[in-house]
Amino acid sequence: MLRYVSTRGGISPVDFETAVLQGFAADGGMFVPQRIPKVSTQQLHEWSESSFQELAFEILSLYIDRTVIPAEDLKKLIRSSMAPFTHPDIIPVIPMSSPANRFAMELFHGPTLSFKDVAMGFLINTLEYFLERKKQTVSLLIATTGDTGPAAAHASCGKKNIDCWVLFPRRFITEEQQRQMTTLQAPNVHAVCVENCPGGGDDLDVVIARLFKDKTLVKKRHLSSVNSINWCRVMFQSIHYFYGYFQVVDYIGEQIAYSVPTGAFGNLFAGYLAREMGLPIQSFICANNQNAAIYRVHKTCSLSRETLKQTASNAIDIAVPYNFWRFLYFASGCNGHTVQNWMERYQLEGTVQFDQMMMAKIKNGFLSASISDDQVFSTIRKTFKGPDQYLLDPHGAVAVAAADELCHKLGDGVKIISLLTAHPAKFPNITRQVLKCGSVLPSQCIHASIEAAKGLFQQVKLSDCSCLESALINDISS
Ligand SMILES: *Cc1c(COP(=O)(O)O)cnc(C)c1O
User: Fold this and answer.
1) Hey, which of 117, 241, 395, 418 would you mutate to test ligand 1's pocket, going by the most ligand atoms within 8 Å of its Cβ?
2) pLDDT for 308-332, tens place per residue?
């Protein structure tokens, strides 16, 4: 049976159910599988015609033991999790007409129009499945920079064993994103607007991490989290790399590249996982915005913390790419001790230096770029005015701009799939500003669910960041 250990190496292996229910490992590390399952070329051939759901079943079966979730139940969980997606292909991959060999994968056809929906529905449904079986309840605490909160809130609606708390920093997210959390009118979903967090979502993560350190509180209130520290999410996100691959290659074995807008490194780690499993991916383009932690690792050989900048691509305004620890765990040869030392140094000094050998592993198959808001705006404009008349959201634009910048390093004819992680309707003000279209938004920027939320009252709890911890303890207790 495949079991799960911690990136810090300080726990005995646990099963999938425990890893999902706990979120964080007990030693403060993140859960990772003991080994990464391998997929043969034969299997790739067999999977190449599969639907997203069929592929999900095959891949998840490598990570989840049948004694933990029987096959029929797993199929049911996948089916119900993908049901809210409005596109028949779930995540369509579309060819872009210029330049050649470019593709875009639309990951935003879920209920809250971002790529977070892809894995969140499955995580919440799986949680509910385990809780129902154990006759337990849980209070989920989620800090959001824009898209995780809406996805979690939506997926939690009406779940009888889950109480969901979504916390967002005031003025760091768009009106549209906020309404996706505050207009749900579900008694088990609580939206909390937090004032005075200059560090944005990172400030909220600090509060949540402090709450989780209080073991008595965690036990008594059954606290858990569904940020991308939860193994279930990164695991599920590896599926779209396989699915996209099969849509664009001419033959199994062809090497392709992915350009990924990167914040916490969850999506990119999932890509790395897919490659380690055996998917032929030549390169990942790590597309940072101006909060460029990974880009700086490549340039300076150190992971360092810098003050957060607010950019047009707010969901990737993240100073600490915490899933990078998972990557470092595998890149260091599953050395929990080394990772723990790095994590401690990072905590104390705000920076970790890597030696040449480690840097070679970090850069192996990874390129990176740091994209400015100006580049984002010109990319949106160019793509919209171009032959496809395609309207990008600011995050997808970061990926496309990074692909433009780095494609010459990939070799001739290598296909690049840019991951489009949000629907432009979540960012009408940016569209307006970039296209100078006044009040008349292009139809690609309008979505029925966003329009519907405008006509509903918002229900929101307010707190100052300095009082958030006690307010949460009080409210969750009642
Ligand atoms: C979360 C998010 C990302 C970044 O994903 P990470 O796993 O944090 O790197 C990119 N784009 C959008 C729109 C997102 O919501």
Assistant:
1) 395
2) 898 999 889 888 898 999 999 999 9
